[in-house]
């Protein structure tokens, strides 16, 4: 089933007018600052927020179309929604929270509880099935919420800032777990986030919103490589490399090594900020652990620095001072060594 | 001093009558008087009717509170004002109104009489109706507050999980606002237990049938003052128990 939504919601400050499309298996991220209208779009698709114009089609069938007075209530829309603060029912155990959707749709109690238990095991907290939400950590509660949203096999999975309420450690673990769930999910997933890393790691398509309208859409690579506004550039201001880790060395698919200061193993992402990249015309000697041979493809002032796009062993974005550009006499097309300290590189499990 | 003196006067004004009740109580014969069959009879009638009225108030009052708390429509504040009317209306007026509408010659009572052969006035059912009339507004207002205090996004979460409005109400909304509903029920029950004016107008004063504790106190004061004091002590004890039950929610100021 595919999603085709054109959400128009009139609000006192600014109107929201956003189109979201997704094919089965896709994860679409709505990225933007707080108050951009991301959550309103998600609520509209879920049926919790009436739209003033436009329409919402699930698999080509209108679930909401104000011009034809069609509005299918949320309870009949076949969506799973994961809220930022999980909103687990406080009076029900983890198992009964997960079983709730099955019971609502007529599954018998024993069967619903068995399926719920299996899902809790699948999200790795089978041993906490009898706990009430108040006795779960933030990460555990969000796992229950993910199981609760997925257990009914919805055709649409909606996630509203699912990682925002978590501390850094839990966020990192849950992000890679969520990635696996999204890869296994056969329907369309729509993820609302203000965190560029979430969007880059989890989504196939990015829809960047600001003040209720789409300012850019594309794949994570397209959007991060060619931000069309300062805002997007700031949001996606990260270089992201995927590879296989062995100790402190991450090797990319094309055989380039990225050295970090942390030990890890398996499939990982390595990320670093554009400002962590230094440039040199000669291969540097000394304590710098990463030096990649690249060529400058773009060069433009960005705030009080110069933003360069580099292609070569790795494709990177680098922010350097204008003085560095002048002292090295660099221009588009010039070969250059991109140098990054190992301590500047963060490695996350993929 | 300008504030403390009137405050002390106010406290004394509330305390002195209760002290008088305790001082004048016939403690020596208290045990015997409590076992008097007519006392037991009216106490039982009071407990049964007040509890029935509370259940009736909950059955219709909680959905009414839900309408006030969770829906939005033109005239909602007017509806709330109308529901609270019995709170400020003299109970005697309520009794007259009940009699004129549900009595044998009342526009609704006549229909009930003709169609079902049920005559309401001066029956135990009339006691329950009179008590429900005065108690239900307490339940509605208190439960509405509890529902408003419950995060309505839980209702939305239930909706996205395929729950119908009824299932959401019974499985999520009510369990989450249960403490507030219980507080409303206790408050309504206490109001029903003390009901006098509407009861005597609509249900009369028949021992064993419509003579509840407050009515018996009124009657006893004219013939046997000691009996009236004993009955009043019983009602005082019940009130204190209710206060104790509500302590957590009300006396700490953290209630609905």
What Rg of chain B is obtained from the alpha carbons, in whole angstroms? Answer: 21 Å
Largest interface: A-B, 25 and 18 residues
Class of secondary structure makeup of chain A: alpha+beta
> What is the multimeric organization of the chains shown?
heterodimer
Widest sheet, order of strands of chain A: 7-8-9-3-10-11
Given the C-alpha coordinates, what overall shape of chain A results?
globular
Low-confidence stretches of chain A: none
Percent of residues in β-strands of chain B: under 5%
SSE pattern of chain B, N- to C-terminal:
HHHHHHHHHHHHH
Show unreliable segments of chain B. 251-256
3D shape of chain B: globular
Main sheet makeup of chain B: none
What is the distance, rounded to the nearest whole angstrom, between the alpha carbons of the first and last residues of chain B? 33 Å
DSSP strand (E) fraction of chain A?
35-45%
Structural class of the secondary structure composition of chain B? mainly alpha
Topology:
The complex is a heterodimer of chains A (350) and B (256).
Chain A: E1 3-9, E2 16-22, E3 27-31, H1 38-46, E4 53-58, E5 61-65, E6 70-71, E7 79-82, H2 94-104, H3 109-122, H4 138-150, E8 156-160, H5 168-184, E9 188-193, H6 196-202, E10 205-210, E11 213-218, H7 220-225, H8 230-235, E12 239-252, E13 257-272, E14 278-280, E15 290-302, E16 305-312, E17 316-320, H9 322-328, E18 335-340, E19 346-349
Chain B: H1 4-24, H2 30-34, H3 37-70, H4 76-88, H5 91-102, H6 107-116, H7 124-149, H8 153-160, H9 165-176, H10 178-193, H11 197-202, H12 213-223, H13 225-250
Helix pairs in contact in B: 3-7, 3-10, 4-7, 5-7, 7-10, 8-9, 10-13, 12-13
Summarize the structure.
The complex is a heterodimer of chains A (350) and B (256). With 350 residues, chain A is an alpha+beta fold. Chain A is built from 9 helices and 19 strands.
């Amino acid at each position: 089933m595919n999603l085709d939504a054109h959400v128009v919601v009139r609000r006192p400050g600014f109107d929201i007018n956003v189109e979201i499309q997704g094919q089965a298996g896709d994860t679409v991220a709505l990225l933007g600052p707080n108050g951009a209208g991301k959550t309103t779009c998600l609520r509209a698709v879920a049926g919790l927020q009436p739209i003033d114009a436009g329409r919402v089609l699930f698999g080509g069938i209108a679930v909401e179309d104000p011009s034809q007075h069609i509005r299918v209530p949320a309870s009949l829309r076949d969506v799973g929604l994961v809220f930022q603060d999980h909103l687990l029912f406080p009076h029900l155990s983890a198992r009964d929270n997960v079983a709730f959707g099955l019971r609502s749709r007529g599954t018998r109690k024993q069967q619903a509880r068995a399926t719920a238990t299996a899902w809790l095991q699948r999200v790795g907290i089978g041993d906490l099935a009898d706990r009430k939400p108040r006795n779960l950590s933030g990460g555990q509660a969000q796992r229950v919420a993910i199981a609760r949203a997925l257990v009914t096999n919805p055709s649409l999975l909606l996630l509203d800032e699912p990682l925002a309420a978590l501390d850094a450690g839990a966020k990192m673990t849950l992000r890679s777990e969520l990635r696996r769930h999204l890869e296994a999910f056969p329907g369309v997933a729509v993820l609302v986030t203000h965190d560029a890393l979430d969007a880059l790691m989890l989504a196939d398509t990015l829809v960047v919103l600001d003040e209720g309208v789409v300012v850019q859409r594309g794949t994570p690579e397209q959007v991060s490589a060619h931000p069309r506004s300062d805002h997007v550039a700031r949001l996606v201001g990260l270089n992201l490399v995927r590879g296989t880790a062995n100790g402190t060395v991450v090797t990319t698919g094309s055989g380039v090594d990225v050295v970090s200061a942390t030990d890890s193993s398996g499939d990982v992402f390595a990320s670093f900020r554009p400002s962590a990249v230094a440039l040199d015309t000669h291969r540097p000697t000394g304590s710098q652990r990463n030096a990649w041979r690249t060529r400058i493809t773009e060069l433009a002032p960005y705030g009080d620095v110069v933003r360069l796009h580099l292609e070569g062993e790795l494709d990177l974005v680098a922010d350097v001072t204008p003085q560095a550009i002048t002292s090295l006499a660099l221009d588009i097309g010039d070969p250059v060594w991109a140098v990054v300290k190992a301590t500047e590189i963060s490695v996350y499990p993929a | 001093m300008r504030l403390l003196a009137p405050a002390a006067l106010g406290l004394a004004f509330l305390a002195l009558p209760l002290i008088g009740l305790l001082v004048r109580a016939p403690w020596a014969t208290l045990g015997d008087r409590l076992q008097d069959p007519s006392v037991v009879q009216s106490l039982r009638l009071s407990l049964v009717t007040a509890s029935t009225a509370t259940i009736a108030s909950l059955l219709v009052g909680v959905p009414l509170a839900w309408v006030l708390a969770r829906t939005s429509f033109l005239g909602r504040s007017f509806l709330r004002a109308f529901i609270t009317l019995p709170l400020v209306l003299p109970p005697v007026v309520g009794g007259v109104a009940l009699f004129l509408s549900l009595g044998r010659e009342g526009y609704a009572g006549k229909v009930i009489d003709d169609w079902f052969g049920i005559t309401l006035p001066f029956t135990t059912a009339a006691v329950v109706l009179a008590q429900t009339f005065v108690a239900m507004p307490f339940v509605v207002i208190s439960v509405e507050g509890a529902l408003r205090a419950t995060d309505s996004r839980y209702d939305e979460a239930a909706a996205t999980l395929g729950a119908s409005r009824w299932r959401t109400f019974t499985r999520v909304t009510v369990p989450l606002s249960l403490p507030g509903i219980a507080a409303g029920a206790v408050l309504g029950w206490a109001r029903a237990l003390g009901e006098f004016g509407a009861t005597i107008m609509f249900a009369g004063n028949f021992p064993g049938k419509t003579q509840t504790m407050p009515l018996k106190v009124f009657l006893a004061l004219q013939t046997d003052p000691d009996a009236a004091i004993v009955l009043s002590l019983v009602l005082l004890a019940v009130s204190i128990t209710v206060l104790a039950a509500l302590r957590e929610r009300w006396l700490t100021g953290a209630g609905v």
